[in-house]
Amino acid sequence: MKASHFQSARFFVMACFCAMTAMNAHAITYGDSTPTFGGAEPADAAPAPAHSSAPETQVSFSPPAGWTVAASTKSRFKVATGPPSRGFVPNISISEAEYAGSAEQFVAENVKNMQGQDAIFHILNQSSFKTRAGLKGVKLIFEINKEKHTFRSTQYIFAPGPGVPLLLVNCSTAAEDGGLYNSLFDQTISTLSVK
Prior knowledge:
Layout: H1 3-29, E1 36-37, E2 48-52, E3 58-61, E4 67-71, E5 78-81, E6 91-97, H2 103-114, E7 121-130, E8 136-146, E9 149-158, E10 166-174, H3 182-189, E11 193-194
Antiparallel strand pairs: 1-4, 2-3, 3-11, 4-5, 5-6, 6-10, 7-8, 8-9, 9-10
């Protein structure tokens, strides 16, 4: 495996497992003192900044109504968390990585590298995705088995362009709830913008 392939696969797996760890941690960490963005459907809500990396790059999305947005201990990006279900907290987190290829290349390399781990990693669907702002990417839905639990991850991967890191938006739920969130995640991530 080439070093760049290993790095991207490692990033991909780390993003998945960080999100799963966050699902448990946010239930304890964020409580009622965290501001809530709600009252409007995600499509109509004003964008709430999810992250500011460099001064020249702004990434934002409108979180689902009633979800909590708070700083992450694992990343510079804020994390949106929903109401607990089945002992887990559904969440939306963003990661970034230096990657010179397209979102499609990134996903292809990582899926290939993960295929040998079928016992813990199972792809459910892969398709193209486009935000309202016209940002094109790849949507990948998969399940991961970890510690007797199965998690569903819906990832949206975008390569905004030269000089802007690849963005991986990870939306995690308990696997049993995964289908309930498909439309909500698509609506929410369709509001993503990069400036």
